[in-house]
Design goal:
Blueprint lengths: L20 H4 L6 E6 L5 H9 L3 E7 L2 H13 L5 E5 L2 H6 L4 H6 E7 L17 H10 L5 E6 L2 H12 L4 E4 L18 H8 L5 E7 L1
Parallel strand pairs: 1-2, 1-4, 2-3, 4-5
Antiparallel strand pairs: 5-7, 6-7
The chain binds S-adenosylmethionine (SAM).
């Protein structure tokens, strides 16, 4: 399977119909968390099982991973977990998907692809236009979590989000994690690898004000 997919390829311009929250989840009224770039979704499977009072939605650009994850969730009858295939930027900028952004309590960007070369920075998932469209539709109090092991990518994401006056940084010390989408601090696959190899992790939380 290809490790890196160019999100700006025209293959991703067409967006499949996004089901309603009622179609996605057993109880659409639960708090909703969105994980962008969820890969095979293991992180979300772990969360959905330990935290049944939240709904979890993953968006991933590699179609095969999404097909497998959806099948696995269906076979295991996990009702608080759903996956959508496509470029998260295109999907969430589309007017038909606005209901997703409006219903979110939190979003995570865990170890997004760094796209190291400057000419490829435009492929990074966090872009000023995307953050602007999130800031227009997210409810006040919605949280954004970013995490990466690449310092340059962290600085870029932090600058992009902090430049939008609708988002304020939250100090982790003042944060009540028991009310968060990840109460037991489940680790993503990349995070487990990074910890095993004793690499640095750069992370920050923002709140929509
Ligand atoms: C480095 S992996 C991290 C996977 C996982 N979040 C983790 O922490 O283990 C980045 C993932 O983001 C996906 N991705 C990259 N750009 C994307 C986009 N624009 N929309 C949706 N998924 C994207 C990639 O296909 C890949 O699975």
């Amino acid at each position: 399977m290809r490790q890196h997919v160019n999100p700006l390829s025209s293959n991703f311009n067409q967006i499949n119909r996004i089901p309603s929250l009622n179609e996605m989840f057993g109880d659409s009224k639960l708090n909703l968390h969105l994980d962008i770039g969820c890969a095979a979704g293991e992180f979300l499977f772990d969360l959905a099982l330990v935290n049944t009072s939240w709904n979890y939605l993953g968006i991933e650009i590699r179609e095969k991973l999404v097909k497998n994850a959806k099948l696995k969730a269906f076979e295991r009858e996990i009702k608080n977990l759903y996956f959508v295939f496509g470029n998260a930027n295109n999907i969430l900028n589309d007017a038909h998907s606005k209901f997703i952004i409006e219903n979110l309590k939190s979003i995570s960007f865990n170890f997004p692809d760094p796209w190291f070369k400057k000419k490829h920075h435009k492929r990074r998932v966090i872009q000023p236009k995307f953050i602007n469209s999130l800031s227009n539709s997210l409810q006040k109090g919605t949280l954004i979590f970013i995490k990466t092991d690449v310092r340059d990518l962290f600085d870029y994401m932090d600058f992009t989000i902090s430049s939008n006056f609708c988002f304020k940084t939250i100090d982790k010390k003042d944060f009540n994690f028991s009310e968060c989408f990840n109460p037991n601090k489940v680790k993503t696959n990349r995070e487990k690898y990074v910890m095993l190899n004793q690499l640095d992790i750069f992370e920050r939380i923002y709140i929509k004000i």
